[in-house]
């Protein structure tokens, strides 16, 4: 066992809550592990991974590195999990793997599905603000957990990235109808059962929305708690906190990192998840 090094990579990275929640889990499990933040941009990722393969047992990756990680992995012949290939993005890099080669995977999907499980009803219509890697992951999560979904609308600056979300409907042979609209159209869209915001807080705060109605729900994955948060258009009871997704994708990373196998103190995954949530709420 002993001390192992882990980190979250991204740019910007100072805002990341990952070190807090991972350290909370280490404390509960009695692990002498270290988890830090490292600023790395897309152009630096390949060299960083090559130069640091022996320094880290595992890595978490956030914006804007998730699609780039899959590209780097494919270029190097590393194992890429099926879910990461399907999404074209990964948020987890594992140093120890079969054949001595790193493995990359995506735990965001598990986190998203866990968060969506809080919804008290089936979703017939969903709207997603944004079309990046996180938006595609949420699109897949919504499609896989709502077989009766009828419409999936994506609001973004350009239609091309949103087509990747539309392609998921075809891949899954889902009956949902896809619609792309420019981000400005959110001002008079009329609403959906579920609205998902994946836009950074500064961008989302500049978007006029008319998506909240009746018993509709919002899932703001940015976990923005400021007065400018898009979630403020909805009553508190109709909001899904993005920190739930953050914690449960991290919980799956902990499992992949071997935290429960190497733990010096026994704790259930539910107890660890609660400790992680408590550290940031």
From TrEMBL:
Entry's Gene Ontology cellular component terms: cytosol
Shikimate dehydrogenase substrate binding N-terminal domain span: 8-92
UniProt record, GO biological process: chorismate biosynthetic process; shikimate metabolic process
Gene Ontology molecular functions: NADP binding; shikimate 3-dehydrogenase (NADP+) activity
PANTHER family: BIFUNCTIONAL 3-DEHYDROQUINATE DEHYDRATASE_SHIKIMATE DEHYDROGENASE, CHLOROPLASTIC, SHIKIMATE DEHYDROGENASE
Protein name: Unannotated protein
Organism whose genome encodes this protein: freshwater metagenome
């Amino acid at each position: 066992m002993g001390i192992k090094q882990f980190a979250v990579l991204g740019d910007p990275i100072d805002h990341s809550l990952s070190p807090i929640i991972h350290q909370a889990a280490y404390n509960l499990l009695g692990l002498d592990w270290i988890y830090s933040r490292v600023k790395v941009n897309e152009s630096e990722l390949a060299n960083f991974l090559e130069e640091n393969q022996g320094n880290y047992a595992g890595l978490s990756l956030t914006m804007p590195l998730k699609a780039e990680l899959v590209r780097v992995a494919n270029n190097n012949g590393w194992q890429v999990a099926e879910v990461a290939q399907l999404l074209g993005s990964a948020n987890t890099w594992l140093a120890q793997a079969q054949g001595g080669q790193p493995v990359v995977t995506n735990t965001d999907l598990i986190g998203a599905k866990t968060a969506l499980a809080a919804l008290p009803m089936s979703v017939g219509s969903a709207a997603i603000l944004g079309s990046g890697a996180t938006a595609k992951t949420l699109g897949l999560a919504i499609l896989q957990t709502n077989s009766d979904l009828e419409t999936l609308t994506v609001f973004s600056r350009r239609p091309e990235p949103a087509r990747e979300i539309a392609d998921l409907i075809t891949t899954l042979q889902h009956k949902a109808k896809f619609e792309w609209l420019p981000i400005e159209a959110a001002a008079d869209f009329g609403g959906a059962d579920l609205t998902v915001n994946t836009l950074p807080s500064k961008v989302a705060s500049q978007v006029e929305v008319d998506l909240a109605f009746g018993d509709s729900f919002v899932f703001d994955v940015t976990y923005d708690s400021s007065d400018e948060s898009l979630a403020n258009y909805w009553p508190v009871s109709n909001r899904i906190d993005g920190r739930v997704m953050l914690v449960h994708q991290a919980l799956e990373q902990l499992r992949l990192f071997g935290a429960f196998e190497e733990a010096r103190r026994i704790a259930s995954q539910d107890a660890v998840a609660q400790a992680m949530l408590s550290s940031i709420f």
